[in-house]
Amino acid sequence: xxxxxxxxxxxxxxxxxxxxxxxxxxxxxxxxxxxxxxxxxxxxxxxxxxxxxxxxxxxxxxxxxxxxxxxxxxxxxxxxxxxxxxxxxxxxxxxxxxxxxxxxxxxxxxxxxxxxxxxxxxxxxxxxxxxxxxxxxxxxxxxxxxxxxxxxxxxxxxxxxxxxxxxxxxxxxxxxxxxxxxxxxxxxxxxxxxxxxxxxxxxxxxxxxxxxxxxxxxxxxxxxxxxxxxxxxxxxxxxxxxxxxxxxxxxxxxxxxxxxxxxxxxxxxxxxxxxxxxxxxxxxxxxxxxxxxxxxxxxxxxx
Length: 303
Description:
The chain is about 60% helix and about 15% strand. It is α+β, with helices and mostly antiparallel strands. The protein has two domains: about 1-45 and about 270-300, no CATH class; about 50-260, no CATH class. The longest helix has about 40 residues, at about 185-225.
């Protein structure tokens, strides 16, 4: 048993030494291939544009359930829904509603059209010293015409979704909204616009629903003869009127900015030294593997 173990160890050492000899013989090939991979990695890293990331820290103005009104509790919400009036959706809090709206296709596409950012979103080539350069092969800035087929809003939605993200701190519940772009100015501007447009969108929707609710409640109060029901309708009308008033006087309707987005001076990516190191290591390992593979086939062919 001991003899077999020694023989196995002997052959194992011989194979390892043989592989080292093979690598040593082909050392110039390995070094050359590794250098080529290193040079290619450097050129590739330098060809990548700088990406800047702008973040904005948010909190909800009122963290309550939008279905907490007495209207829904009394069962009149179902009656109102038959008339096409929304009086609150139980179980949906402000944070969930805001993030769902922010990530929705209809909001993002409307945001792109309203802010007119389709060209820098789909044709931005680089940013240098405060100047944005549009890819001339994609969009003709002088004639304001697309040289290629104009991107659809679905393509624009996908492109924008790849540039922004949201996260919630599990401890304090604060929301971080981030935008990445080749231009730090665009990243900061787009992040700020997103919050403004989101607040305006939610405000407009809530005000319209409140106005429809007031109209519905007024009609119902006129058609009932019960004094108790009229008193309830008047209280609900007062609630909806207060909603409209607060919406018109409060700029931060849903989300309040704690830490605004700034124009970043330092790039977020790419990590060029890391790309060069990984590219060089990959080239070295690949060259050694190819040398061993060629030696294996050559030995098999000779045998």
